[in-house]
Amino acid sequence: MAQPTIDATGEPVAQWRDKKRYLWLLGLIPPTALFVATGFVALMNWAGRELDWGWLNAVSPVWWWTGPILVYLLLPLLDIFFGPDGQNPPEELIEQLENDKYYRYCTYVYIPFQFASLIFASYLWTADNLTWLGIESGGLGLASKIGLAFTVGAMGGIGINTAHELGHKKVTMERWLSKVTLAQTFYGHFYIEHNRGHHVRVATPEDPASSRYGEGFWTFLPRSVWGSLRSAWELEANRMKRLERPVLHHTNDVLNAWAMSVVLWGALALIFGWQVLPFLLLQAVYGFSLLETVNYLEHYGLLRQKNARGRYERCTPQHSWNSDHIATNIFLYHLQRHSDHHANPTRRYQTLRSFEESPNLPSGYASMIGIAYFPPLWRKVMDKRVLAHYDGDLSRANLQPSKAAKLLAAHEAAAVAVLERPAADSASTVQNLSADAYRCGNCEYVYRIADGAPREGFAPGTAWHDVPDDWACPDCGVRDKVDFLPIGV
């Protein structure tokens, strides 16, 4: 079992306090940034007019680009200034923290601000009289509208991370809110693919959301976008088949998530006019591209080895790139503690821990996003870290297939060691098939034969041997059927 890093405070459990408890409210900066930016635009235009400083009016439109400024400039600087966090919650307090509803309210409140900002942006994109903001030309110029789209898209991209936090939870309302949050970016299929696809296949060549050594971001982006969409559709199509329903059914979670986007975009177009649609499209593309950039960072070049039975070893802290820089962690709800998230997907963000043995990025995710856009720079920074992680044996990495031979030839030691290595795996090869129920070894989900799993397409009374071998835990996605433990024999 991986050991978390030692809490740098060294406080006894009885005295431990979450120093980030109220800092989590800073996560509301992205969905409220547009209102703050609007205030600064109005203030600078007013001051420019009153003081006869025309340069203030000239530079005030920069505020419409607040989102990119936050992502590419402010957060990286804050990560450098404040550095790593260093605080892990004591194991004895995990349950108490999990049950503290204050933390989940911090994520819930993101959503109304997100939609308020989107509606306000739609007004700004289409308004032809903004003199109340001191804009004498009437409406926003094209550059300002594009900057506004990127600011709203940044909010939507960070909103996908909010949806990510909610979508992993077992509470039905939170899973519904996850799809609602994804409506802005038209990326509702992420709710399916991430939980039931990515978490099952992470750090393998079969996972579209795990980037490969030697693969540039601009190659990864279309592969991940289309591969994840295809995976989500196949996962739901198979579930509908088990339920004996047509694929085009309202209970198909891909379709009902997309329907939320159609309703939202349709309503905005109806209220503000069709002119809003190009900017809705631009903000959505930018928003989900931010998500995909983070996907690119999280597992670059990392590979789960196959064991003697041909199955991939279980995901461990070694299979995710982490960062404990506190500033980005605040904005992304501890997403950078990614190893613990993959080990415990249903664990709430405030209880995620940092592991000593996890491979670490040189800075926070916000800093690495900008580097990822420039493949030569990215490879200069990251390839040596992948090599060091595998002790110079590149055959153990997840390689870009089109470059594999060339990459291995460039590292002769790895080329010689290209033979597969059986990985340790504690899962039993034979299961007791006479039990009444089977429990996931990771998240305590229980499959009871008497109850079945109707939502998964297994009617009450479905025997364990009739459940497909490739079925994974519906709650955490970490354990396959073979990893379930028999109970109630």
From TrEMBL:
Superkingdom: Bacteria
Membrane topology designation: Multi-pass membrane protein
CDD domains in the cross-refs: Alkane-hydroxylase, rubredoxin
Source organism: Gordonia alkaliphila
Keyword Transmembrane helix among record annotations: yes
Keywords: Cell inner membrane, Cell membrane, Electron transport, Iron, Membrane, Metal-binding, Monooxygenase, Oxidoreductase, Transmembrane, Transmembrane helix, Transport
Family classification: Belongs to the fatty acid desaturase type 1 family. AlkB subfamily.
Name of the protein: Alkane 1-monooxygenase
Major subcellular location class: membrane
Role this protein plays: Involved in the hydrocarbon hydroxylating system, which transfers electrons from NADH to rubredoxin reductase and then through rubredoxin to alkane 1 monooxygenase.
Transmembrane segments: 22-42, 62-82, 102-126, 146-163, 254-274
PROSITE patterns the UniProt entry points to: RUBREDOXIN, RUBREDOXIN_LIKE
